[in-house]
């Protein structure tokens, strides 16, 4: 299935429960902070990842320095990074076997996406879940539903 297909986006947003938001900010004016709050409000657990804020708390969640340090299984890595900073995060997501890598608006890394897809990871690029959820009519999620990480 082609990347960014509406049905693929729907399936992702209806099945993921735990999201690692890479590039999280503690500043409420930043888009990553706004998207994190929105996703939490929709029922997702969002784990902030940012080496500069590691150990602090953002929106009630402890910030981790990198994906490899996160101790909770993650269904999706949401990347709020400049495209030239995504390769090491994509490689970490592959190593951690995170089922979905979602790159935010303006974040495009075709080579990294291909590498992830070859490793069996679903990739979304240049999209924002905060825009896609209402556009696709995705209802709030519940944490009791089956997660893609279960059974791994």
UniProtKB/TrEMBL annotation:
Organism name: Marinobacter orientalis
Q: Give all residue intervals belonging to the CoA-binding domain.
A: 13-107
| Lineage of the organism | Bacteria, Pseudomonadati, Pseudomonadota, Gammaproteobacteria, Pseudomonadales
Q: Name one Pfam family in it.
A: CoA_binding_2
* Superkingdom of origin organism: Bacteria
InterPro entries, sorted = CoA-bd (IPR003781), NAD(P)-bd_dom_sf (IPR036291)
- The protein in question is named CoA-binding protein
């Amino acid at each position: 299935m082609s990347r960014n297909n509406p049905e693929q986006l729907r399936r992702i947003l209806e099945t993921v429960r735990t999201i690692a938001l890479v590039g999280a900010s503690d500043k409420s004016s930043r888009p990553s902070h706004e998207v994190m709050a929105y996703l939490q409000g929709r029922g997702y657990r969002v784990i902030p990842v940012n080496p500069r804020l590691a150990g602090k708390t953002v929106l009630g969640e402890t910030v981790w320095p990198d994906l490899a340090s996160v101790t909770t299984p993650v269904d999706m890595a949401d990347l709020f990074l400049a495209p030239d900073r995504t390769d090491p995060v994509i490689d970490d997501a592959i190593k951690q076997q995170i089922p979905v890598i979602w790159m935010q608006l303006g974040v495009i890394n075709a080579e990294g996406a291909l590498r992830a897809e070859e490793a069996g990871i679903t990739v979304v690029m240049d999209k924002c879940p905060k825009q896609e959820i209402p556009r696709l009519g995705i209802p709030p999620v519940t944490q009791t539903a089956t997660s893609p990480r279960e059974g791994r």
